[in-house]
Amino acid sequence: MLTQQLTQPIYHVLSSHGFGEVREDKASLSKAFFAIEKFNAGDVICSFAGAAILKQPTYLTVQIGEDEHIHLKPEHLQYINHSCEPNVIFNTATMQLECLQPIKSGTELCFFYPATEWDMAQPFECLCSAASCIKQIQGAKYLSKEILPNYKLTAFIQSMLNK
Description:
This protein is mostly beta strands. The chain has 2 helices and 13 strands; from the N terminus they run αβββββββββββββα. It has a single domain (2-157), classed as Beta-clip-like (Beta Complex). It has a 3-stranded antiparallel beta sheet with strand order 1-2-3, with no helix packed on it. Strands 4-10-9 form a 3-stranded antiparallel beta sheet, with no helix packed on it. Strands 5-7-6 form a 3-stranded antiparallel beta sheet, with no helix packed on it.
């Protein structure tokens, strides 16, 4: 039990939002969004909108078009972090957050950033430790045609790949 306590992050709940909550890791101060109910693959978790539309990406925006990047509304969705093994996707055609695989209560919601982002404002080295981790996250533009078919991508990213 002590070993688990030393290796498992200790979270503090910052805010609750019906189907999930924003939690902060007490050690690293990183924030993430966790489910507080279960979802099945194909479920629509919630709808979202753009609080603002920008021409340039930021680290908090989701891309909906070639020069269109939105700040998410509701704002708590910005705490859905990246994983190379995502369990959700921001479907920018329907403006719905969709479940990709079964999610249990207490599971962190994660999406594959290149599924929505063509060329990211702030590339980073991925530390998700998934078996399928692609290591460098920069946007779909930089990924091989062998990697991308393994992921559900937005209609916008699909259109960019078909150019």
